[in-house]
Design brief:
148 residues, alpha+beta, Ubiquitin-like (UB roll), DNA polymerase, domain 1, 2 domains, 5-stranded mixed sheet, 5 helices, 5 strands, elongated
């Protein structure tokens, strides 16, 4: 059995249990989109992201794929977690023309055009795309939404 803490609540679960499953046993809700009991977890939607605290660091990971560890401390709704979830909710229209955003750095524009992310969250995980690039993209998307 593995002992861990989720949102200040201690729990003991079998080895091999995911953080999402452990949270569900405590009655703690973690939003999911791609998680389903009939499918293998792959963490694609990133809505189930949580913050893992261990060895003096705090990392973000998808709770549906991460297996529990002895002494792990999990936080399900920190400011960082909520920010990532909000980015995952912001869709980028299919076929979006990144060339229309003149304030982008060349590297960011090229990578976004090549990968064509579906959400701001996906865009934020592309190597070479900075938080400033995401902020510029967000402002542009919001302006376009208001213009309609």
């Amino acid at each position: 059995m593995v002992k861990l803490t989720i949102d200040n609540q201690p729990i003991e679960v079998k080895a091999g249990t995911t953080v999402l499953e452990a949270a569900e046993k405590l009655g703690i809700y973690i939003p999911t989109l791609c998680h389903h009991e009939s499918l293998l977890p792959y963490g694609g939607c990133r809505l189930c992201v949580v913050e893992l605290c261990r060895k003096g660091t705090a990392d973000l990971t998808s709770s549906c794929t991460y297996k529990v560890e002895e002494g792990l401390i999990v936080k399900t709704s920190t400011e960082r977690v909520e920010r990532v979830r909000r980015l995952e909710d912001k869709a980028i229209p299919q076929g979006f023309d990144y060339d229309n955003i003149t304030s982008f750095r060349k590297e960011a524009r090229e990578k976004l055009k090549r990968f064509q992310p579906a959400t701001l969250g996906q865009a934020s995980r592309i190597s070479g795309v900075t938080p400033a690039d995401i902020a510029i993209l967000l402002v542009h998307l919001e302006k376009a939404k208001c213009a309609k």
